[in-house]
């Protein structure tokens, strides 16, 4: 069971790493909130033929839990991405990467406060190792750069994004017993509705960049890979091993994003990137081994 979860979560973070690269390639080809909105439109169009029948059959359950499902879709799908893109306009990629590494910690704390789920010292050590790996990749191999971080408005709202995705991950524990097709379609519709105000605000501000061919390609990738397939796998990974253990894999996102930049964009592979990958994978392995022993 846990091996299946590992494969799901590794592929999820690989797709999310591709989303980081897509965000870089999107500049001047599609504006941020237009991308957020279009990926939600496309995700709903993809999920409609897959989940419409099951959603109708599960409608009585969905209707009773519409507030929870709406909140999950808004927090995990819309607010996180909208705030993430906005934060990058005010702060650096280094700051954002470091702050995003706090997601597993917030998940662990929230699970303890809400559900009294405990972790042991070995798991905490694994979390620390993954954070060091993220810090290494974010600082381009020079941890002294972290001392120069200048916190600003972008960092403040990025912390809100961290809370959004952490509570989404923890909230999946409360999702109703409906089929995955119904769940994904309901979450996608909620995300579409909540992404509309961000798009309209960008239109009103005159900051829309109409997508060209590359912009549409990026929108389709983020819809299929980063919005539909990855979320299905992440939800399933949470079901199999729990949010505490699944959330730790999120720290692979900046690692995969950097490695994909090397492979696709042609950036030079550096030694610190290899060291960071070893630290993050080692931290996940250490925490996961301890977590499995606690679960037995």
UniProtKB/TrEMBL annotation:
<protein>
    <submittedName>
        <fullName>Membrane protein</fullName>
    </submittedName>
</protein>
<keyword id="KW-1003">Cell membrane</keyword>
<keyword id="KW-0812">Transmembrane</keyword>
<feature type="transmembrane region" description="Helical">
    <location>
        <begin position="67"/>
        <end position="88"/>
    </location>
</feature>
<feature type="transmembrane region" description="Helical">
    <location>
        <begin position="183"/>
        <end position="200"/>
    </location>
</feature>
<feature type="domain" description="EamA">
    <location>
        <begin position="153"/>
        <end position="286"/>
    </location>
</feature>
<keyword id="KW-1133">Transmembrane helix</keyword>
<feature type="transmembrane region" description="Helical">
    <location>
        <begin position="94"/>
        <end position="115"/>
    </location>
</feature>
<feature type="transmembrane region" description="Helical">
    <location>
        <begin position="153"/>
        <end position="171"/>
    </location>
</feature>
<keyword id="KW-0472">Membrane</keyword>
<dbReference type="GO" id="GO:0005886">
    <property type="term" value="C:plasma membrane"/>
</dbReference>
<feature type="transmembrane region" description="Helical">
    <location>
        <begin position="215"/>
        <end position="234"/>
    </location>
</feature>
<feature type="transmembrane region" description="Helical">
    <location>
        <begin position="122"/>
        <end position="141"/>
    </location>
</feature>
<dbReference type="InterPro" id="IPR037185">
    <property type="entry name" value="EmrE-like"/>
</dbReference>
<feature type="transmembrane region" description="Helical">
    <location>
        <begin position="38"/>
        <end position="55"/>
    </location>
</feature>
<feature type="domain" description="EamA">
    <location>
        <begin position="4"/>
        <end position="138"/>
    </location>
</feature>
<dbReference type="Pfam" id="PF00892">
    <property type="entry name" value="EamA"/>
</dbReference>
<feature type="transmembrane region" description="Helical">
    <location>
        <begin position="246"/>
        <end position="265"/>
    </location>
</feature>
<feature type="transmembrane region" description="Helical">
    <location>
        <begin position="271"/>
        <end position="289"/>
    </location>
</feature>
<dbReference type="InterPro" id="IPR000620">
    <property type="entry name" value="EamA_dom"/>
</dbReference>
<dbReference type="InterPro" id="IPR050638">
    <property type="entry name" value="AA-Vitamin_Transporters"/>
</dbReference>
